[in-house]
């Protein structure tokens, strides 16, 4: 990308970095120890210095070491096609985005093994329990709202970063 292209892009959309994202979340009331279920769109930020990793780092810094971040890692696999789904290698659907696909690949993030189409990934104190809950109450069985109820009971929140919740 040329300098001219970058200058044009910077006028069209803002430039942000990890610290901007963390400060923005803090302004919204995100605090250390919070539980967040994150849905996101990297392109909605404009230019992000550091890309998806910067967004993830900003969110993780906002919740701190005592917090938990959960992100959907939905795939193109059929509902129960366990041969096609490998939680260590299967990418998320393209429409789910770069941030979730980058998040689950981090060595300190746990990605669920079930269900193949609607797995979740998490990092933080509550992530193991939430991932296990999602595996025992899969979305295919109509339990997405039940999972959100559990998140709410844990005083968690859904964070939509530049996207809607479908």
Can you describe what's shown?
This protein is an alpha/beta fold and 166 residues long. Helix content is 37%, strand content 16%. Strands 5-6-4-2-7 form a 5-stranded mixed beta sheet, sandwiched between helices. Helix 2 packs parallel to helix 3 and helix 3 crosses helix 4. The longest helix is centred in the middle third of the chain and has 13 residues. The N and C termini lie far apart (33 Å).
Main attributes?
alpha/beta; two-stranded parallel ribbon; five-stranded mixed β-sheet; 6 helices; globular; single chain; 37% helix; 166 residues
Itemize the secondary structure elements and their pairings.
Elements: H1 3-12, E1 15-16, H2 18-28, E2 35-40, E3 47-48, H3 51-63, E4 68-72, H4 98-104, E5 110-111, E6 120-124, H5 127-136, H6 144-153, E7 157-161
Parallel strand pairs: 1-3, 2-4, 2-7
Antiparallel strand pairs: 4-6, 5-6
């Amino acid at each position: 990308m040329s300098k001219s292209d970058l200058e044009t892009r910077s006028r069209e959309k803002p430039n942000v970095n990890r610290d901007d994202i963390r400060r923005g979340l803090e302004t919204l009331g995100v605090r250390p120890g919070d539980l967040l279920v994150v849905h996101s769109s990297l392109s909605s930020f404009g230019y992000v210095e550091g890309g998806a990793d910067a967004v993830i780092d900003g969110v993780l810094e906002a919740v701190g070491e005592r917090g938990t971040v959960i992100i959907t890692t939905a795939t193109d696999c059929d509902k129960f096609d366990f041969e096609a789904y490998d939680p260590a290698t299967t990418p998320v659907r393209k429409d789910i985005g770069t941030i979730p696909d980058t998040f689950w690949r981090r060595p300190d993030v746990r990605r669920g093994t079930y269900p193949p189409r609607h797995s979740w990934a998490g990092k933080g104190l509550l992530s193991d329990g939430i991932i296990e809950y999602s595996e025992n109450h899969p979305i295919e069985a109509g339990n997405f709202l039940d999972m959100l109820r559990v998140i709410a009971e844990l005083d968690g929140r859904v964070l939509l970063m530049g996207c809607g919740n479908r």
